[in-house]
Amino acid sequence: MARKSRKHKYKEELKSPFPVAVGYIRLSVANKEKASSIENQKFIIERWGEQQQIPISHYYIDNGFSGKFSDRPAFQEMIQDILSGDINCVVVKDLSRLGRNYISTGYYIEVFFPSNGIRFVSVNDQFDTIDGIIYQEHTCSSRIRVPITNTFNEQVSIEIKKKMEATLDMKAQHGIFIGPRAPFGYQKAEDNHDQLIPDPKAAIIIRKIFELAANGIGMTAIVRYLNEKEIPTPIQYARLNGLSGNYDNGNGNWNSRSVKYILTNRTYTGMLVQGKEKRVVSATHEALVDTNTFDAIQKSFQEKAFNIAKHGQSTENILKGKVICGCCGGKMQRKRGTNHVDWYFFTCITKNRLGADKCTGMYVREEDVLRAIYYQLKLCVKEHFISNSQYKQEIMRLNNEIDHSESQYQEIFRNAVHHYEMFVDGKISKDEFRAVQDVANEKKAIRDNIIASKMAYEKQYQVFRKLLKASYKEVALDEIMDCIDKITICPNKNITVKWAIEFQTIVK
Asked: Is 359 helix (H, G, I), strand (E, B) or coil?
């Protein structure tokens, strides 16, 4: 059934001769061009208002939000105000500011705005619904141009993301710093924000931390030294130097994690390791510690984490919160051995706190726990082993499925665009268009699920490779702690490791 024109209905609903007009402005993170700035969008909307003698009463601004999704805070606030009857005219610079998803953007223009008596204006597209959706005075008919423009805007959003990622990767390959903030100890050069230079004050702190570690001072002692000297933490120092924003300030004290992050960060050797592909470029900036000293500190960490140091265990509790009592289910506490010798054990204190009827009081040496982890790690790697050739074959299979699914989606996508134009022309009903739209969304969901499966498989393979290296003691044990859910100490003294990853997702 052909759809009736909304032209007369719209004019009846828009009763006020002086529309309550608002401007909607959106600026994405990726778009830094002056032509798309918030000020420029405001200028264009204000100029339209002056020409039409319609004051712009309010602006809804989404700064740093993608147009692919409609769950933007200012946009949703505007929608609620429309539903409340507080607005009857919305003005944007161009259609891409309203959104870059052709289906959802078309819904607001063709369905939501008219049904709520909203006049919608896209200034640069010369699109104005004052005369209804179907009729436009301009020779280049908007009923055809708008859906095509929306489809183009959606593709532009995808291309912008790809270009941004490619640009950052290229910069990383050439040793250009791409981070939003310089690491503690450095600052961005005033004449080139892509270049790191030492921060005169913070660099002194970094050099002192490495000096202490190189002289055999333990992590705990370094933390104590920094706190006793009231040296500002990295976030405190950044705040003192003008940093603003929603950052975690911590409790104001140095801790082992922040010190170890510094002592294991190769940026301080003058090297940059950046990007998803971990692009490594040496001698990109002035070093705050020489490579030999840095490597010696890493070796010291590695020996302790591997439990192969001749005189005991690491002073850090890398198993914190992981060791569980198999009797009562409580977390076991780590304690130093008798007479404070350099060995550790885990004990459950539920018996002391609640009585013998609540727990038998489990006990285990840390060395036995670490030995059990390595033993079960080797069993896990052996059971779920996947070779490089198997990985490549599976990736090839998934890529073929993605290509096939993408082809199907593109075909139905073009069909959906065609039906959308028929819907705008009034040749088909909304339900007929929705049926085709649902099919397009289903095909897109199938494609996205395959892509998600590939990403999950790639992530699983990377985790497997990390576990494999840990089983050969090529990486520190503390680097795989995120792969362990818990370590249960059973009453019969058996130790079981529960892994935090789903190995069955790996396809052999």
From this structure: coil
Q: Is 262 exposed, middle or buried (0-12, 13-18, 19+ CB in 10 A)?
A: buried
Cα–Cα nearest to 308, from 372, 367, 375:
367
Tokens of residue 219, six digits = 């992590």
Closest by CA position to 360, among listed 342, 348, 374: 348
Q: Is the pLDDT of residue 270 over 50?
A: yes
Q: Count CA atoms closer than 13 A to 289's CA, side-chain side.
A: 27
In 248-381 the beta strands, taken as DSSP E runs, fall at 272-274, 279-281, 323-325, 333-336, 344-347, 363-365
Residue with tokens 């265990």: 313
Q: What are the residues whose beta carbons fall under 8 Å from the beta carbon of 47, sequence distance 6 or more?
A: 123
483 against 1, higher pLDDT: 483
What's the start-to-end Cα distance of the chain, in Å?
Answer: 53
| Euclidean distance between CA atoms 95 and 128, whole angstroms | 11
Distance CA 175, CA 62 (A): 33
pLDDT tens digits, 5-57:
443 333 334 444 456 899 999 987 655 555 568 898 999 999 999 998 899 99
- Residue 157 in this model has a pLDDT that exceeds 90: no
C-alpha pair distances (Å), 451 with each of 67, 335, 398, 399, 503: 22, 47, 8, 8, 19
Unique residue bearing structure tokens 């002391």: 352
- Residue 211's CB: how many other CB atoms inside 10 A? 13
